[in-house]
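README, section 4: Worked example with a bound small molecule

Sections 1 through 3 covered apo chains. Here we extend the same pipeline to holo records, where the ligand is supplied as SMILES alongside the sequence. The molecule in this example is S-adenosylmethionine. Nothing else about the input changes; the structure line simply encodes the ligand pose together with the chain.
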Amino acid sequence: MTSPDLPAELKAALDGKLRGFSRSDAAARAAAISKTYRAGGNSGAIRSEADALAYALARMPATYAAVTASLNALIEIRPDLVPKTLLDVGAGPGTATWAAAEAFSSLQHLTLLDANDALRALALDLARDSTRLRNVSYERGEARTALAKADAADLVVASYVINEIGDAEQRALAELMWARTNDTLLLVEPGTPAGYARIIALRDHLIALGAHVAAPCPHDGPCPLQPPDWCHFSQRLQRSRAHMQVKGAEVPFEDERFSYVALTRAPVAQRRSRVLAQPDVGKVEITAKLCTTEGLSVTRVPRRAKADYASARRWRWGDAVS
Ligand SMILES: C[S@@+](CC[C@H](N)C(=O)[O-])C[C@H]1O[C@@H](n2cnc3c(N)ncnc32)[C@H](O)[C@@H]1O
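The generated complex, written as structure tokens:
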């Protein structure tokens, strides 16, 4: 399992960049960017080197943690996956590329693409001193245009990108990404009802085109959750001092809520139930909400079933369990 916290090389590169910048300026810029996102805006608000750094300091630890948690879940179901090539669509500062490089030592060719010059420049700067990442290739351009020219990759990732694409274009982008996927396509979005809705719409669309779900769902059927419920997960990550200052945070950790789907070309052999919320451990029984091959299930494990109870005590929200 890869740690959800930023790798030391990336932390050091971010700290190095921050040295020439005022933390209060970075905090003000990060707050303005967050306000834009909350109001439905996009990364177009990130225009300068200082904006890009502020975005990375404020958001990269959390999006990295969400992508890593998704990759950990994927690897658990697909331990045979050894991707050699990566395509990171809407790569921004390179978050998903760093996460994938940590998760898969097999990766040899890493390609990023994005339309934002400031984020691209920052990504290349952060990667410059990394042994794994210094030879990445970073294409500049609008995702659909760049994808049309891109080589296919074993692993294609779009992390926190679909929410920046207009509703009408999301399917077309997903189709293009799927067409460039040799093995697995991972989509990660904020863990809000709207983020989940985008994931589930593209999941259904790509299943209709022949995709199979590796994670989180143990099936390729329709999602059994009914509104107002939605499928999302939570990953805790540590906050560095700089991260706390830029976010004006008081606690040294953050819980990032995210929704994701990993879609593969080949049918998936392992179908393990997914824990959809933190189980309730009571004196008499453990109650867990699971997504199973048969649909949604509220499973009760009585204390008297000693071995089952002991193993259910270890279940955590997001785990794949048998
Ligand atoms: C919220 S950022 C996420 C960046 C990175 N994937 C991460 O997880 O930290 C969204 C990124 O998608 C890029 N993006 C949005 N729409 C795009 C498009 N149509 N073509 C290329 N890049 C796009 C933005 O420039 C930005 O870098």
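What to look for in the output: The chain is about 40% helix and 25% strand. The mean pLDDT is 94.

Section 5 describes how to batch many such records.
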